[in-house]
Please model this.
Amino acid sequence: MLDIKIEKTKEPKIHPKEDDPLAFGTIFTDHMFIMDYTYGQGWHDARIVPYQPLMLDPAAMVFHYGQEMFEGMKAYYGVDGSTLLFRPEKNAQRANHTCHRLCMPNIEELDYIQAIKALVKVDESWVPTKEGTSLYIRPYMIATEPRLGVRPSQTYHFVIILSPVGAYYPEGLDPVKIWVEENYIRAANGGIGEAKTGGNYVASMKAQEEAAKYGYSQVLWLDAKEKKYVEEVGAMNIFFKIGETIITPQLTGSILPGVTRDTCISLCKEWGYTVEERRISIGELEMAAKEGTLKEVWGTGTAAVISPVGELNIHHHPLKVADGEIGELSQRLYDTVTAIQLGKIEDVHGWVLKV
Ligand code: COI
Model:
Protein backbone atom coordinates (compact mmCIF):
# COMPACT_ATOMS: atom_id res chain seq x y z
CA MET A 1 0.00 0.00 0.00
CA LEU A 2 1.46 3.34 -1.03
CA ASP A 3 1.45 6.40 1.20
CA ILE A 4 0.46 8.98 -1.44
CA LYS A 5 0.93 12.66 -0.56
CA ILE A 6 -1.46 14.95 -2.39
CA GLU A 7 -0.72 18.56 -3.33
CA LYS A 8 -3.62 20.18 -5.16
CA THR A 9 -3.10 22.82 -7.84
CA LYS A 10 -3.80 26.45 -7.01
CA GLU A 11 -4.36 27.23 -10.68
CA PRO A 12 -6.88 24.77 -12.08
CA LYS A 13 -7.06 24.71 -15.87
CA ILE A 14 -10.19 25.33 -17.86
CA HIS A 15 -11.87 22.06 -18.79
CA PRO A 16 -12.81 21.44 -22.43
CA LYS A 17 -16.51 22.06 -23.12
CA GLU A 18 -18.73 19.05 -23.57
CA ASP A 19 -18.99 19.61 -27.30
CA ASP A 20 -15.34 20.44 -27.98
CA PRO A 21 -13.80 17.84 -30.26
CA LEU A 22 -11.23 15.92 -28.20
CA ALA A 23 -8.27 15.02 -30.39
CA PHE A 24 -6.35 12.09 -28.96
CA GLY A 25 -3.84 13.00 -26.24
CA THR A 26 -3.54 16.77 -26.65
CA ILE A 27 -5.08 18.06 -23.39
CA PHE A 28 -3.79 17.14 -19.96
CA THR A 29 -5.51 17.38 -16.59
CA ASP A 30 -4.56 19.38 -13.48
CA HIS A 31 -2.51 16.73 -11.68
CA MET A 32 0.00 13.95 -12.19
CA PHE A 33 1.25 11.04 -10.09
CA ILE A 34 4.95 10.52 -9.58
CA MET A 35 7.11 8.24 -7.44
CA ASP A 36 10.80 7.52 -7.39
CA TYR A 37 12.87 4.36 -7.32
CA THR A 38 16.34 4.03 -5.94
CA TYR A 39 18.29 0.79 -6.14
CA GLY A 40 18.57 -0.69 -2.63
CA GLN A 41 15.68 1.42 -1.33
CA GLY A 42 12.85 0.52 -3.69
CA TRP A 43 9.92 2.80 -4.58
CA HIS A 44 9.49 5.90 -2.43
CA ASP A 45 7.93 9.37 -2.30
CA ALA A 46 4.63 8.56 -3.99
CA ARG A 47 2.87 11.88 -4.65
CA ILE A 48 0.14 13.57 -6.63
CA VAL A 49 1.23 17.06 -7.64
CA PRO A 50 0.06 19.79 -10.02
CA TYR A 51 0.76 18.82 -13.67
CA GLN A 52 4.23 20.18 -14.39
CA PRO A 53 7.42 19.60 -16.41
CA LEU A 54 9.82 16.94 -15.14
CA MET A 55 13.27 18.03 -14.08
CA LEU A 56 15.82 15.54 -15.43
CA ASP A 57 19.58 15.45 -15.68
CA PRO A 58 20.63 15.71 -19.35
CA ALA A 59 22.60 12.51 -18.81
CA ALA A 60 19.48 10.62 -17.58
CA MET A 61 19.74 7.17 -19.14
CA VAL A 62 16.28 7.26 -20.73
CA PHE A 63 17.57 9.88 -23.18
CA HIS A 64 20.43 7.71 -24.35
CA TYR A 65 19.40 4.09 -24.21
CA GLY A 66 15.62 4.33 -24.26
CA GLN A 67 14.97 2.48 -21.00
CA GLU A 68 11.27 3.27 -20.63
CA MET A 69 7.95 1.49 -20.27
CA PHE A 70 4.52 2.95 -20.96
CA GLU A 71 0.95 1.76 -20.67
CA GLY A 72 -2.47 2.87 -21.83
CA MET A 73 -5.78 2.55 -20.00
CA LYS A 74 -9.02 4.52 -19.82
CA ALA A 75 -11.44 5.77 -17.15
CA TYR A 76 -15.05 5.98 -18.29
CA TYR A 77 -18.03 7.99 -17.14
CA GLY A 78 -20.37 5.15 -16.22
CA VAL A 79 -24.12 5.22 -16.82
CA ASP A 80 -24.76 5.65 -13.08
CA GLY A 81 -22.36 8.60 -12.88
CA SER A 82 -19.49 6.60 -11.35
CA THR A 83 -16.01 6.47 -12.84
CA LEU A 84 -15.00 3.05 -14.14
CA LEU A 85 -11.70 1.41 -15.06
CA PHE A 86 -11.45 -1.54 -17.43
CA ARG A 87 -9.23 -4.50 -16.48
CA PRO A 88 -6.57 -2.40 -14.71
CA GLU A 89 -4.86 -5.50 -13.32
CA LYS A 90 -4.13 -6.62 -16.91
CA ASN A 91 -2.32 -3.35 -17.54
CA ALA A 92 -0.40 -3.69 -14.30
CA GLN A 93 0.69 -7.20 -15.25
CA ARG A 94 1.74 -6.11 -18.73
CA ALA A 95 3.64 -3.13 -17.30
CA ASN A 96 5.60 -5.50 -15.11
CA HIS A 97 6.22 -7.82 -18.03
CA THR A 98 7.68 -4.90 -19.99
CA CYS A 99 9.75 -3.82 -16.98
CA HIS A 100 11.13 -7.31 -16.61
CA ARG A 101 12.21 -7.41 -20.27
CA LEU A 102 13.82 -3.95 -20.04
CA CYS A 103 15.63 -4.59 -16.70
CA MET A 104 13.45 -2.08 -14.88
CA PRO A 105 11.96 -2.46 -11.38
CA ASN A 106 8.59 -4.07 -10.73
CA ILE A 107 5.62 -2.22 -9.26
CA GLU A 108 3.29 -4.17 -7.00
CA GLU A 109 0.02 -4.73 -8.91
CA LEU A 110 -2.04 -3.30 -6.03
CA ASP A 111 0.21 -0.22 -5.77
CA TYR A 112 -0.07 0.38 -9.52
CA ILE A 113 -3.87 0.27 -9.35
CA GLN A 114 -3.94 2.35 -6.15
CA ALA A 115 -1.86 5.09 -7.82
CA ILE A 116 -4.15 5.16 -10.86
CA LYS A 117 -7.31 5.23 -8.77
CA ALA A 118 -5.95 7.99 -6.54
CA LEU A 119 -4.99 10.23 -9.46
CA VAL A 120 -8.24 9.64 -11.35
CA LYS A 121 -10.15 10.45 -8.15
CA VAL A 122 -8.33 13.78 -7.77
CA ASP A 123 -9.01 14.69 -11.42
CA GLU A 124 -12.42 12.99 -11.64
CA SER A 125 -14.05 16.19 -12.93
CA TRP A 126 -11.96 15.71 -16.09
CA VAL A 127 -13.64 12.43 -17.08
CA PRO A 128 -15.58 13.50 -20.17
CA THR A 129 -19.22 12.48 -20.31
CA LYS A 130 -20.08 12.55 -24.01
CA GLU A 131 -20.54 9.26 -25.87
CA GLY A 132 -17.29 7.97 -27.36
CA THR A 133 -15.07 9.91 -24.95
CA SER A 134 -13.02 8.82 -21.93
CA LEU A 135 -10.13 9.86 -19.72
CA TYR A 136 -7.02 8.25 -21.19
CA ILE A 137 -4.52 7.14 -18.54
CA ARG A 138 -0.86 7.05 -19.48
CA PRO A 139 1.38 5.45 -16.83
CA TYR A 140 5.09 5.33 -17.73
CA MET A 141 8.46 4.61 -16.20
CA ILE A 142 11.77 6.19 -17.20
CA ALA A 143 15.41 5.61 -16.28
CA THR A 144 16.73 8.71 -14.53
CA GLU A 145 20.28 7.88 -13.45
CA PRO A 146 22.80 10.29 -15.00
CA ARG A 147 25.23 7.87 -16.64
CA LEU A 148 26.50 7.06 -20.12
CA GLY A 149 27.69 3.50 -19.54
CA VAL A 150 25.32 0.94 -21.00
CA ARG A 151 23.70 -0.97 -18.14
CA PRO A 152 20.31 -0.71 -16.38
CA SER A 153 19.74 2.55 -14.51
CA GLN A 154 19.70 2.46 -10.72
CA THR A 155 17.05 5.17 -10.39
CA TYR A 156 13.64 5.65 -12.05
CA HIS A 157 10.53 7.80 -12.09
CA PHE A 158 7.09 6.21 -12.39
CA VAL A 159 4.66 8.83 -13.66
CA ILE A 160 0.95 8.83 -14.52
CA ILE A 161 -0.69 11.54 -16.61
CA LEU A 162 -4.31 11.84 -17.74
CA SER A 163 -5.86 13.16 -20.94
CA PRO A 164 -9.54 13.52 -21.87
CA VAL A 165 -9.90 11.91 -25.30
CA GLY A 166 -12.31 11.16 -28.11
CA ALA A 167 -11.73 8.57 -30.85
CA TYR A 168 -8.09 7.66 -31.58
CA TYR A 169 -8.54 7.79 -35.35
CA PRO A 170 -10.13 10.83 -36.97
CA GLU A 171 -12.30 8.27 -38.83
CA GLY A 172 -14.00 7.37 -35.50
CA LEU A 173 -15.74 4.04 -36.04
CA ASP A 174 -15.59 4.44 -39.83
CA PRO A 175 -13.36 1.77 -41.37
CA VAL A 176 -9.65 2.63 -41.67
CA LYS A 177 -7.39 1.91 -44.62
CA ILE A 178 -4.28 -0.11 -43.83
CA TRP A 179 -1.02 -0.49 -45.72
CA VAL A 180 0.63 -3.93 -45.57
CA GLU A 181 4.30 -3.10 -45.02
CA GLU A 182 6.86 -5.04 -47.06
CA ASN A 183 10.09 -3.12 -46.55
CA TYR A 184 10.39 -2.11 -42.92
CA ILE A 185 9.83 -4.41 -39.94
CA ARG A 186 8.62 -3.54 -36.45
CA ALA A 187 10.05 -6.33 -34.31
CA ALA A 188 11.71 -9.71 -34.51
CA ASN A 189 11.40 -12.78 -32.29
CA GLY A 190 13.68 -12.45 -29.31
CA GLY A 191 13.54 -8.66 -29.53
CA ILE A 192 11.32 -6.29 -27.58
CA GLY A 193 8.18 -6.42 -29.76
CA GLU A 194 5.95 -7.71 -26.98
CA ALA A 195 7.12 -4.98 -24.56
CA LYS A 196 5.21 -1.71 -24.41
CA THR A 197 8.10 0.64 -24.89
CA GLY A 198 8.82 3.69 -27.02
CA GLY A 199 11.39 1.86 -29.17
CA ASN A 200 8.68 -0.19 -30.84
CA TYR A 201 6.72 2.90 -31.73
CA VAL A 202 9.59 4.93 -33.14
CA ALA A 203 10.46 1.85 -35.22
CA SER A 204 7.06 2.18 -36.85
CA MET A 205 7.09 5.87 -37.75
CA LYS A 206 9.01 5.83 -41.04
CA ALA A 207 6.74 3.22 -42.58
CA GLN A 208 3.67 5.04 -41.29
CA GLU A 209 4.88 8.30 -42.78
CA GLU A 210 5.38 6.63 -46.15
CA ALA A 211 2.00 4.86 -46.04
CA ALA A 212 0.33 8.17 -45.20
CA LYS A 213 1.56 9.54 -48.54
CA TYR A 214 -0.66 6.96 -50.23
CA GLY A 215 -3.59 7.85 -47.97
CA TYR A 216 -3.29 4.96 -45.49
CA SER A 217 -3.70 5.74 -41.80
CA GLN A 218 -1.90 2.70 -40.41
CA VAL A 219 0.62 0.03 -41.31
CA LEU A 220 0.11 -3.71 -40.91
CA TRP A 221 3.40 -5.31 -39.90
CA LEU A 222 4.59 -8.66 -41.21
CA ASP A 223 6.99 -11.05 -39.49
CA ALA A 224 10.63 -10.02 -39.64
CA LYS A 225 11.99 -13.32 -40.97
CA GLU A 226 9.85 -14.16 -43.99
CA LYS A 227 7.77 -10.99 -44.34
CA LYS A 228 4.85 -13.27 -44.94
CA TYR A 229 2.87 -13.62 -41.71
CA VAL A 230 0.70 -10.91 -40.19
CA GLU A 231 1.83 -9.46 -36.85
CA GLU A 232 -0.01 -6.33 -35.64
CA VAL A 233 -0.78 -2.74 -36.55
CA GLY A 234 1.41 -0.98 -33.98
CA ALA A 235 -1.37 0.92 -32.23
CA MET A 236 -3.62 -2.17 -32.35
CA ASN A 237 -3.79 -5.96 -32.66
CA ILE A 238 -5.56 -7.34 -35.71
CA PHE A 239 -8.41 -9.82 -36.25
CA PHE A 240 -9.83 -11.49 -39.37
CA LYS A 241 -13.18 -13.18 -39.85
CA ILE A 242 -12.81 -15.82 -42.54
CA GLY A 243 -16.06 -17.68 -43.07
CA GLU A 244 -17.35 -18.07 -39.51
CA THR A 245 -13.89 -18.44 -37.95
CA ILE A 246 -12.06 -15.66 -36.15
CA ILE A 247 -8.31 -15.61 -36.62
CA THR A 248 -5.75 -13.42 -34.87
CA PRO A 249 -1.95 -13.79 -34.92
CA GLN A 250 -0.66 -15.83 -31.99
CA LEU A 251 1.56 -14.11 -29.43
CA THR A 252 4.99 -15.14 -30.62
CA GLY A 253 7.05 -12.63 -28.65
CA SER A 254 7.10 -9.89 -31.28
CA ILE A 255 3.44 -8.89 -30.85
CA LEU A 256 1.95 -6.77 -28.08
CA PRO A 257 -0.42 -8.80 -25.85
CA GLY A 258 -3.36 -6.41 -26.04
CA VAL A 259 -5.97 -6.19 -23.29
CA THR A 260 -8.70 -5.46 -25.85
CA ARG A 261 -7.35 -8.37 -27.95
CA ASP A 262 -7.84 -10.68 -24.98
CA THR A 263 -11.32 -9.22 -24.35
CA CYS A 264 -12.35 -9.81 -27.98
CA ILE A 265 -11.12 -13.39 -27.94
CA SER A 266 -13.17 -14.10 -24.79
CA LEU A 267 -16.34 -12.48 -26.19
CA CYS A 268 -16.10 -14.19 -29.59
CA LYS A 269 -15.64 -17.58 -27.90
CA GLU A 270 -18.66 -16.91 -25.66
CA TRP A 271 -20.70 -16.06 -28.75
CA GLY A 272 -19.93 -19.46 -30.21
CA TYR A 273 -17.22 -18.55 -32.73
CA THR A 274 -14.16 -20.68 -33.22
CA VAL A 275 -11.20 -18.41 -32.43
CA GLU A 276 -7.81 -19.41 -33.76
CA GLU A 277 -4.65 -17.77 -32.45
CA ARG A 278 -2.17 -18.79 -35.10
CA ARG A 279 0.09 -17.65 -37.89
CA ILE A 280 -1.85 -16.18 -40.79
CA SER A 281 -0.13 -15.29 -44.03
CA ILE A 282 -0.89 -12.52 -46.46
CA GLY A 283 -1.32 -15.25 -49.11
CA GLU A 284 -4.09 -16.83 -47.02
CA LEU A 285 -5.84 -13.48 -46.77
CA GLU A 286 -5.57 -12.88 -50.51
CA MET A 287 -6.95 -16.34 -51.18
CA ALA A 288 -9.83 -15.84 -48.75
CA ALA A 289 -10.63 -12.51 -50.38
CA LYS A 290 -10.61 -14.16 -53.82
CA GLU A 291 -12.94 -16.90 -52.62
CA GLY A 292 -15.21 -14.37 -50.95
CA THR A 293 -14.69 -15.77 -47.44
CA LEU A 294 -12.77 -12.80 -45.99
CA LYS A 295 -15.76 -11.27 -44.23
CA GLU A 296 -14.31 -8.74 -41.78
CA VAL A 297 -11.06 -7.27 -40.52
CA TRP A 298 -10.75 -5.14 -37.40
CA GLY A 299 -8.12 -3.83 -35.04
CA THR A 300 -8.29 -3.80 -31.24
CA GLY A 301 -6.55 -1.52 -28.77
CA THR A 302 -7.16 0.54 -25.65
CA ALA A 303 -6.94 3.80 -27.56
CA ALA A 304 -8.61 2.52 -30.74
CA VAL A 305 -11.15 0.20 -28.98
CA ILE A 306 -12.50 -1.72 -32.02
CA SER A 307 -11.47 -0.25 -35.34
CA PRO A 308 -12.99 -1.77 -38.47
CA VAL A 309 -10.66 -2.07 -41.46
CA GLY A 310 -12.22 -1.22 -44.82
CA GLU A 311 -9.21 -1.74 -47.04
CA LEU A 312 -5.86 -3.51 -46.99
CA ASN A 313 -3.23 -2.53 -49.51
CA ILE A 314 -1.20 -5.61 -50.42
CA HIS A 315 1.74 -5.22 -52.83
CA HIS A 316 0.27 -1.89 -54.01
CA HIS A 317 -3.09 -3.54 -54.73
CA PRO A 318 -6.03 -2.23 -52.69
CA LEU A 319 -8.19 -5.01 -51.35
CA LYS A 320 -11.63 -3.90 -50.13
CA VAL A 321 -12.94 -5.60 -47.01
CA ALA A 322 -16.67 -5.85 -46.19
CA ASP A 323 -17.32 -3.38 -49.04
CA GLY A 324 -15.52 -0.76 -46.99
CA GLU A 325 -18.36 -0.85 -44.43
CA ILE A 326 -18.40 -1.70 -40.70
CA GLY A 327 -18.85 -5.46 -40.39
CA GLU A 328 -21.62 -6.91 -38.26
CA LEU A 329 -19.26 -8.60 -35.80
CA SER A 330 -16.98 -5.54 -35.52
CA GLN A 331 -20.04 -3.48 -34.64
CA ARG A 332 -21.25 -6.05 -32.11
CA LEU A 333 -17.83 -6.16 -30.47
CA TYR A 334 -17.64 -2.37 -30.32
CA ASP A 335 -21.14 -2.12 -28.85
CA THR A 336 -20.49 -4.84 -26.28
CA VAL A 337 -17.01 -3.76 -25.20
CA THR A 338 -18.10 -0.13 -24.77
CA ALA A 339 -21.31 -1.18 -22.99
CA ILE A 340 -19.27 -3.18 -20.47
CA GLN A 341 -16.79 -0.33 -20.04
CA LEU A 342 -19.61 2.15 -19.36
CA GLY A 343 -21.47 -0.17 -17.01
CA LYS A 344 -24.46 -0.34 -19.40
CA ILE A 345 -24.58 -4.12 -19.22
CA GLU A 346 -23.80 -6.49 -16.40
CA ASP A 347 -20.09 -7.08 -15.87
CA VAL A 348 -20.24 -10.87 -15.69
CA HIS A 349 -16.47 -11.19 -16.23
CA GLY A 350 -15.41 -8.94 -13.35
CA TRP A 351 -13.59 -6.65 -15.81
CA VAL A 352 -14.80 -3.31 -14.44
CA LEU A 353 -13.46 -1.53 -11.35
CA LYS A 354 -15.12 1.49 -9.75
CA VAL A 355 -12.74 4.33 -8.85
C1 COI B 1 -3.12 2.28 -26.44
O1 COI B 1 -3.95 1.70 -27.14
O2 COI B 1 -3.38 2.66 -25.31
C2 COI B 1 -1.78 2.52 -26.92
O3 COI B 1 -0.90 2.64 -26.12
C3 COI B 1 -1.55 2.69 -28.34
C4 COI B 1 -1.01 4.00 -28.58
C5 COI B 1 0.29 4.09 -29.15
C6 COI B 1 -1.87 5.16 -28.59
Q: What stands out?
A: The helical segments are 62-65, 88-101, 109-122, 198-213, 259-270, 282-291, 328-341. The first strand starts at residue 5 and ends at 6.
